[in-house]
Amino acid sequence: MKRVLTLMMSLAIVLTLAIGGLPAALAEEELPTLKVLGPYLNFDPNTDPTAIAIEECTGYHVEYSMLPAENADENLLLQIASGETYDILRISPAQYRQLLEMGALMPLDDLLAEYGPNLTSLITDEAYELVQSDGQTYGIPMMAEREVISAAVQYRKDILDELGMEAPTTPEEFHDVLAAVKEAYPDMIPLCLAGGIWVPTLVSGFGFYTNWVDRDGKIVNYQQLPEYQDYLNYMKSLYDDGLLDADLPINTTVTVDEKFSSGRAFAVSSGWYEASTQVPALMENLPDAEVAYLDPLYDANGNAGVATAYALNNVTCIPKNAEHAEDAVKFMNAKLESDTFTYITLGTEGETFTIDEDGNYYPIMPIFTELRNNAWWYLNSFDMTRYGDMWMARTRRNEALGEAFDAINANFDQFAVRNPVDFAPVLPSVAENSAALSQMESDYQIQVMVGVESLDNFDTYLQGWLDAGGQACLDEYNEWYATTQAD
After folding, report:
1. CA 254 from chain center: how many Å?
2. CA gap 334, 98 in Å, rounded
3. 483: exposed, middle or buried (C-beta count within 10 Å: 0-12, 13-18, 19+)?
4. Rounded to two decimals, what is the model's pTM?
5. Residues 267-288: pLDDT tens digits?
């Protein structure tokens, strides 16, 4: 039996070397089994084709585990505090900061210098600065794949055409369109939202674009802007006029998707990534329907913009009690070998993807989805010199998805605005308070919409938000921002 296993392993190594994957140094070693913990996703990471491809290319067998869908932060902290051992953690920036504050993470500088030439050369210094503390590196940063506009108001163009109206370009015009929809189609919801009233497309019409804003060289929160109260009043008027879904307080993303895809809603705020299910379902129910996406609205001064999605996505780190720290770095470094990285993320050219004469990547369907649908879950970071272009294949794996991405980003150069804190490191108060503060904001917005709260009490609410951690976040952001201004 031992001889058979040895022969099988030798054959696997030969096959792997044939596709250019397993580095020779690793092929000569007896490699340990690594334990990896990642975020929740509804699939089995131990049997997925990408996991098999990674083992083929690196020679490492990996036991993958996931955090739960609910209470992931608490579960992670409990596992680490109780001494559960993992070699690699792939976690959110906020979770990374919590573990860093606990002193639970291993410094990586020496390991990266000795075993991680790809990890240090293919990931920018700017990205690494986001995961450093007191001059030491405790994580491997994975940024958003590329700078894009991620969301817009998606609407029924066929209905707008029936009404003989043009796509609105200002808040006033948007109100008029929704009012016309309500009059012509009394049973249709003009605008359907979930989780609060922050709609990037509409926010633009009031002169701000991001949740943290540079005003005169200082970082302020959008709620501190007088324009934000104008926005609240505007959204309140939509709700009071029956133009914003009355179910706003109880809507979820699932119910919003259902209302739009069934034809019961005229417009929704939607990310391009949601189009893969929303639009095909709508077309199945209403074959003559046509979907379009609004550009950000212009404010009274003729300005418009929308925040881009480009920041730290997640962090890979090694706990202090990891049993195989050196191999963990070798493993992650091996995944970034050029041919290996391509094979893991996209598969084989001509089989699962193609590259056109202009260097654009396209998936071959359905084999791409069958073999690499979940590949991104396994990335600890990526080759920042080329993955932005390779990633575009993922946006094209579904016709509706590709059309939505292209439409929302068609005028990227004209409208894209970067959040001034996108490249802030993971700051303690921000990591600790962001989730609770965001929930506080959404709750207040909905309370204003339904009349439980009055804008007359806004100053009291804002002071409560500041006292609940908002001021601590402001202080940390401004302390960091001052260093960037000095540079």
Report:
1. 18
2. 28
3. exposed
4. 0.83
5. 999 998 888 889 999 999 999 9
